[in-house]
């Protein structure tokens, strides 16, 4: 009997331990502990994005570049040929022309063409149809770069090609050039899981082309055509791309884009972000006015990584007992000038060589795969020579301690399958090496 009573007592004690209320346990915690837990819970709260809070705007970044303005494509009714390129110097051995080549135009001072004027070069492609409805969309026109009038005669003129981003051909249109500023604004990051409602909606009707090759898919920094025109869209508007994988399945957000050109029936959009490849037929929805910029929640706020531009390391390291300063200068397509951004970065060279009077400099120039082999080789050489002159004039580095190499598109560090990788390949690598 005593054994039974002891066993019952043990069971009662164990049951009391197992079923003691959580409330009684929390009451034993100090006020400081409770306050700490409350703060932690608040930080873990995931923001529920209402419609008007669907759009998160990051720090300001360069959304539409000067290269975009010079190199985009668009669809429009076919143009009547007026001012155009009639020939070029050395055209007997060259069918496609690039930066610094000289060309002839069919009009001169009698038609208002004057020395020093700049014009846009426009390549005419083929007529295309809507990839979904199969209706005619228009003729493809590609901006290729600029021509500077260097010698105007009465009925014709000579010009020099500048900032060329696509090969120029005899017969290309020449139209007035209106400079546009780069668009530096807050970058949209669409955080809502559903497409905007009660807004204008269309779809990707055509993919951009390059050298007459039509694309079937697009990603970040590519251009696409949507079937909404200037009556709906304006330059700088944001679009959200989404896909449906079945009639019974919900839509999936796959990317965002910004409008960079509008025509009467269609618009050209630059893809800013995408998680899945964008294709013809992908839905596009205009971000409405109600989606105002808001301050991102704590867990989203972080310093935005510079996209591609600063993806290469600049640092001082020690090799075989010698200090080596390494800097990379990156370029837009066909560009050879050093931007102010990189001139500021190069100031570190002044401090480095002041502490090491005995030094040597190695410059290596590279290009991406856009353009011909010979053209890219000359382009990489010009980039290197410009950097060499800058180092000599700015920092007093003597010519006999500078070694230069240029490789064109050979020996690329990155593949050229995307614009992100091509951007990294358009560079001059600088090494300032301490002598023993």
- Radius of gyration, taken over Cα atoms and rounded to an integer in Å: 30 Å
Extract low-pLDDT stretches: 18-29, 34-57, 292-312
Strand content: 25-35%
Q: How many extended strands?
A: 24
How would you sum up the major sheet?
A: 7 strands, antiparallel
Key traits:
35% strand, alpha+beta, 3 domains, 60s Ribosomal Protein L30, Chain: A, 7-stranded antiparallel β-sheet
Structure overview:
- With 436 residues, the protein is of the alpha+beta class.
- The chain folds into three domains: 51-63 and 184-286, Beta Barrel (Thrombin, subunit H); 67-176, Thrombin, subunit H, CATH 2.40.10.410; 315-434, 2-Layer Sandwich (60s Ribosomal Protein L30, Chain: A).
- The chain has eight helices and 24 strands.
- The strands form six sheets. Strands 2, 3, 4, 5, 6, 7 and 8 form a seven-stranded antiparallel beta sheet that branches.
- The chain starts with a helix and ends with a strand.
